[in-house]
């Protein structure tokens, strides 16, 4: 809520961050499903008097917000995507409280995956995976919605079919041109769905969970290319663009994609001494893995009428 306050601009919101909840669903035949979510809530409401007049009558206590996460999780007797849960929570806050004009709910899912034992999916066993599913939902009292989903920490690497040539060369440039290098990155992706009202959101409880899996597959397949021949990458920029374009081409209900792809360097190892000038001579075989510094490459791609 932005507004004029004693001649200043004033903006405020309040919420509860990092509310952790796990939910288990059990089917009669013995199959258990579970999720672990970290939920962050932010409410926009007219409670300026709390800041200026010690009047808290417009405040939904953040403790109440935390409790609501558990109550709503309890009420969800059927498994649902975290996007649907975020929408349900945000809808609750904007419809239940006359003071609340808009709610933002973010969720990060801990990547518990069903384990396979002797090639069989385990009924109630899970192990921690790596990349995380994220979502951010904004719901206004009017029913207008902004829905984004994403992936964080998707680490990928290929050992060939990557190069970097033709960049600016000047007196500060040392990097040789190459058609042969490792390409490693940790993808952070977010994409915006085109649904902009509560009533237009698909009702299927797991629709956005399936979308998440499908988007991840498209991103990975585009990064790696076919299993035998792969695909050549002329730069992180080029690969990033191909990945973003593939997502928009494949999913009509996604209107914008943002990708962050740091270039995580694997440096060629060459070691020489006076006595032994080629103790280790790099031949596309021994690398020094690094975390920092790393290249920082990001872009967003959206349909003409849309933005992230
Ligand atoms: O794919 C790359 N993009 C760059 O912008 C860049 N800059 C650099 O030093 N190496 C690379 N690689």
Automatic annotation (TrEMBL):
Catalytic activity, reaction form: urate + O2 + H2O = 5-hydroxyisourate + H2O2
Enzyme Commission number(s) of this protein: 1.7.3.3
Cellular component terms per the entry's GO annotation: peroxisome
Pathways per UniProt: Purine metabolism; urate degradation; (S)-allantoin from urate: step 1/3
Binding site for 5-hydroxyisourate: 62-63, 164, 181, 236-237, 263
CDD domains reported for this sequence: Uricase
A Pfam family assignment: Uricase
Keyword flag Oxidoreductase: yes
Enzyme class: oxidoreductase
Localisation per UniProt entry: Peroxisome
UniProt keyword list: Oxidoreductase, Peroxisome, Purine metabolism
InterPro entries: Uricase, Uricase_CS
Function text: Catalyzes the oxidation of uric acid to 5-hydroxyisourate, which is further processed to form (S)-allantoin.
Protein name, UniProt field: Uricase
Source species of the chain: Corymbia citriodora subsp. variegata
């Amino acid at each position: 809520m932005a507004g004029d306050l004693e001649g200043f601009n004033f903006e405020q919101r309040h919420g509860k961050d990092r509310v952790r909840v796990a939910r288990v669903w059990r089917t009669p035949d013995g199959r258990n499903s579970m999720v672990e979510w970290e939920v962050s809530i932010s409410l926009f409401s007219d409670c300026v008097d709390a800041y200026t007049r010690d009047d808290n009558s417009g405040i939904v206590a953040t403790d109440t917000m935390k409790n609501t996460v558990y109550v709503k999780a309890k009420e969800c007797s059927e498994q649902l995507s975290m996007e649907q849960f975020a929408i349900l929570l945000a809808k609750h806050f904007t419809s239940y409280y006359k003071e609340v004009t808009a709610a933002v709910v973010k969720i990060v899912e801990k990547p518990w995956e069903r384990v396979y034992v002797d090639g069989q999916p385990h009924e109630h066993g899970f192990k921690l995976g790596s990349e995380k599913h994220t979502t951010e939902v904004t719901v206004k009292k009017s029913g207008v919605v902004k829905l984004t989903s994403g992936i964080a920490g998707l680490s990928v690497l290929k050992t060939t079919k990557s190069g970097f040539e033709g960049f600016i060369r000047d007196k500060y440039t040392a990097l040789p041109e190459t058609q042969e290098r490792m390409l490693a990155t940790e993808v952070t992706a977010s994409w915006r769905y085109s649904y902009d009202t509560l009533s237009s959101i698909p009702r299927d409880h797991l629709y956005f969970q399936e979308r998440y899996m499908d988007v991840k597959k498209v991103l990975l397949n585009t990064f790696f290319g076919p299993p035998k021949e792969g695909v050549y990458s002329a730069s992180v920029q080029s690969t990033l663009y191909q990945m973003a374009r593939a997502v928009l081409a494949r999913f009509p209900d996604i209107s914008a994609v943002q990708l962050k792809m740091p270039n995580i360097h694997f440096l060629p190892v060459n070691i020489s001494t006076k006595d032994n000038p080629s103790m280790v001579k790099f031949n596309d075989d021994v690398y020094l893995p690094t975390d920092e510094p790393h290249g920082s490459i990001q872009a967003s791609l959206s349909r003409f009428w849309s933005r992230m």
